[in-house]
Amino acid sequence: MSDLQKYIDKRKRENPDFWKDYEKRFEAFKNWILRAPPDHPIDDSQIPEYSLDDLLKDVTADNLHDESDMGRPVGNEEW
User: Fold this and answer.
1) pLDDT tens digits for 3-20?
2) From CA 71, how far away is CA 79, in angstroms rounded?
3) 8, 20, 46, 66: most buried by Cβ count inside 10 Å?
4) Residue 57: pLDDT band by 50, 70, 90 thresholds?
5) Residue (of 12, 39, 16) closest to 28 by Cα position
6) What is the C-alpha to C-alpha distance for residues 33 and 19, in angstroms, rounded to an integer?
């Protein structure tokens, strides 16, 4: 079992109400993100896949920003 699946299972045990209709809400969210009309759901095969090289090809010294200081970790963050 992957770490992600363990995390999801733990969250399901801790807050079962959140996970009711999760798949339906996730599908609606995905369609909203992709701007798909509700009566035309997006098929996963329509979502383009990008490699890291694809995503970084337009990064240049001119458009690269400096590192951002986000302050001290809060909550359960680990850095």
Assistant:
1) 888 888 888 888 888 778
2) 12
3) 8
4) very high
5) 39
6) 20
